Amino acid sequence: MGDCLPKNGSRHDMGGQVVAFFDYSRLPILFALRYTFNMAEIGVLGGTFDPPHEGHLTLARAARQQWGLERVLWVLTPAPPHKRGQRLTPLEHRLAMVQLALQGEPAFELSRVDIDRPPPHYAVDTLRLLARQYPAAGLIYLMGADSLRDLPLWHRAAEFVASCAGVAVLPRPGVDLDLNVLEQRLPGLRAKVRWLEAPPMAVSSSEIRRRLAQGQTVEGLLPPAIAAYIVQHGLYRSDGQRLAPTNR
Asked: What is the helix, strand, coil percentage profile of the chain, to 5?
């Protein structure tokens, strides 16, 4: 692969694997070409999905419908760097639950881009790898308003903004943002943000885990198939028997 590196590319060592990447300073030209020729756009929804819930589905559905996305890739991250040391449900259970969430959603696909590569799994590197898999498509990153608020703290945040064609954002209750302030920290972000129209959902995976551990109801927060899977496998119980420490 050594002779295939573009003149304006670079090499990155990702867990012992040397990967050649395109020079993303040229992305504005590529984006213009995509819009000119009406090329496809693909949504990217990343997360640990511990567990996947109705908020994830609301975000993915709203983004696909309102942005006109060809598909939405669900990128399951085994152990993201910002959650290092936290206890995560074993990957095989999270993978099974994501597959259940995608049932009946033909435009949603599981992406193994993070599962099949060594850590660390930063979103900016995930986007670069997906850009290689889908070179003719614009990548639209999906997130909640709380993630947008924290975006300046992300690893290589400016490069992340340059790497995606857009950012689809779902409002969250209690999260107020000033895009002008974010734009000062991440120039170019404001032009890429599009707010989605959907009922704000005060739901998070951590809140669902807390409720399950305390024996409280999670009705309406989880797809029925996932709720049944959790009961079947005894996940998120207060004794923690089904939880494993992060070791990836």
From this structure: 40, 20, 40
